[in-house]
Amino acid sequence: EMQLLESGGGLVQPGGSLRLSCVASGFTFSSYWMTWVRQIPGRGLEWVANINREGSEKFYVDSVKGRFTIFRDDAKNSLYLQMNSLRAEDTAVYYCARQVVTSSDVFDVWGQGTVVTVSS
Amino acid sequence: AIQMTQSPSSLSASVGDRVTIACRASQGIRNDLGWYQQKPGKAPKLLIYSASSLQSGVPSRFSGSGSGTDFTLTISSLQPEDSATYYCLQDNNYPFTFGPGTKVQIK
């Protein structure tokens, strides 16, 4: 069974840092692009960042550029999101998802999410 | 960034009804659009990709159509388990952007 399991969420003060992890199982992790999507409580979904199979291409939503870094470790079947200079508006549930890139880009396997709360 | 809008923001319908949700992009995105279903406390689930292709395992009562700027998700016969929020997502251009969602409730 294909699974993604996020961890690393928690309570952090504004300006602080947090690293999210996402461990994959049940599929060949190194063969896929991966992505992070977040959801502010009670609100909609926002795509945050993604990374290609080789780790050489990374894309970010403007609101996190320069503060967040996505990276991967294929030996550990793991995806990461390093979040620095956190703001209250970064408070959300963060999901990792497998991204299938063909004629379209789809997010076909999702984790259960990890909660990040930025508050003093 | 490409802006996505959805209408209606919410709807209430009876079991067996045909339900249609609209999604509009602020600029042409060819057919680079997906539809996702999300139930409370759960991760989103892919229903439709490339505007009209049904994801494996998704019931055939779900269908998608459209191209360019206007897209539609149709549920041909609403079932109780379809109560959820539905989001469209454009993957034509970075940053990928979701619509604000349409909440579907069962009468």
Entry summary:
In chain A, 0% of the residues lie in helices and 55% in strands. Chain B contains no helices and eleven strands. Chains A and B meet through strand 5 and strand 10 of A and strand 4, strand 5 and strand 10 of B.
* pLDDT < 50 runs, ≥5 residues of chain B: none
- In terms of structural class, how would the helical and strand content of chain A be classed? mainly beta
Residues in β-strands, percent of chain A: over 45%
- Give the % helix of chain A: under 10%
What oligomerization state is this entry in?
heterodimer
SSE arrangement of chain B, N to C: EEEEEEEEEEE
Q: What order do the helices and strands come in, and which of them pair?
A:
The complex is a heterodimer of chains A (120) and B (107).
Chain A: E1 3-7, E2 10-12, E3 18-25, E4 33-39, E5 45-51, E6 58-60, E7 68-73, E8 78-83, E9 92-101, E10 105-110, E11 114-118
Parallel strand pairs in A: 2-11
Antiparallel strand pairs in A: 1-3, 3-8, 4-5, 4-9, 5-6, 7-8, 9-10, 9-11
Chain B: E1 4-7, E2 10-13, E3 19-25, E4 33-38, E5 45-49, E6 53-54, E7 62-67, E8 70-75, E9 84-90, E10 97-98, E11 102-106
Parallel strand pairs in B: 2-11
Antiparallel strand pairs in B: 1-3, 3-8, 4-5, 4-9, 5-6, 7-8, 9-10, 9-11
What do these coordinates show?
- The complex is a heterodimer of chains A (120) and B (107).
- In chain A, strand 7 and strand 8 (78-83) form a beta hairpin.
- Chain A has strands at residues 3-7, 10-12, 18-25, 33-39, 45-51, 58-60, 68-73, 78-83, 92-101, 105-110, 114-118.
- In chain A, the strands form two sheets. In chain A, strands 2, 4, 5, 6, 9, 10 and 11 form a seven-stranded mixed beta sheet that branches. A four-stranded antiparallel beta sheet of chain A has the order 1-3-8-7, with no helix packed on it.
- Chain A is mainly β and 120 residues long.
- Chain B is mostly beta strands and 107 residues long.
- Helix content of chain B is 0%, strand content 50%.
- Chain B is built from no helices and eleven strands.
- Chain B has strands at 4-7, 10-13, 19-25, 33-38, 45-49, 53-54, 62-67, 70-75, 84-90, 97-98, 102-106.
- In chain B, strands 2, 4, 5, 6, 9, 10 and 11 form a seven-stranded mixed beta sheet that branches.
- Chain B starts with a strand and ends with a strand.
- The relative contact order of chain B is 0.35.
- Classes of the chains: A mainly beta (120), B mainly beta (107).
